[in-house]
Amino acid sequence: SQGGQSRDVRNAKPLTLQDAQALMDKTAAPAVVAVAPIIQGRFDIAVGSNTTSTQVSGVTAGYASLSNELLIEGEFINSTNISGRSMVAVLGPTTAQNLFGRTSGLVGLSIRIQGKPFRVIGLLKAKGGSGFGNQDDRVLIPITTAQTRLTRRSSGTSGIDQIQVQASSAETVKTASTQVSAILRAR
Questions:
Q1: Can you point out the beta strands (E) in the chain?
Q2: For every residue of 24-57, which 3-state class applies, written as one string?
């Protein structure tokens, strides 16, 4: 389940990493088992003179399990990448094909996102899909790197675009949603 209930955007404050951390409070939200804050935007990605525009998402280490991401090569973003604001990237297979013309042997190679160098550390397994919402045409980077190196947010802000939330079971989705809403309203 995603924590995406509608809210009055006129009075809504931007979501923050602190909001995501508050949702992991087992006392206030016992039905929530995982939380994944995300920063996203569309950016130019390049390898040599080959350039494509694709979705770049700044994510945490927990995003992989919450979103059922599987790797066919390399490793996923980890807590060291997050704390170090590492310039590393995990590629979707369509993005890899568009940039390199292949979907293997990419770990350790470099790409540029908005002209900044990133080292490829992993390649995602295909999920399928096409067009604008193609889950295979994307790049994942550490959320802290996205905050400090790519977004146009003013320095010092910790705004994020989305928080994905996983309930403990199908039966607790409604309860988790109520708990998430209460926490975010209070904050």
A1: 15-16, 32-47, 50-59, 71-74, 88-91, 110-113, 116-124, 138-142, 159-160, 162-167
A2: CCCCCCCCEEEEEEEEEEEEEEEECCEEEEEEEE
CA distances (Å), origin 177, targets 10, 38, 76, 183? 21, 18, 28, 10
- Element spanning 82, H or E: helix 79-83
pLDDT of residue 156: 43
Cα–Cα nearest to 55, from 144, 122, 152, 138:
138
Two structure tokens written together for 116: 């900044």
Q: Which residue has the tokens 């988790």?
A: 176
β-bridge pairing 162-167 and 32-47: antiparallel
**What is the token pair recorded at 54?**
């694709």
- Rounded to two decimals, the pTM is 0.84
Cβ pair 28, 163 in contact under 8 A: no
Confidence band (pLDDT; 50, 70, 90) for 149? confident
Question: For residue range 48-75, what is the model confidence (pLDDT) as tens digits?
Answer: 999 999 999 999 999 998 988 999 999 9
- Assess whether pLDDT exceeds 80 at residue 129: no
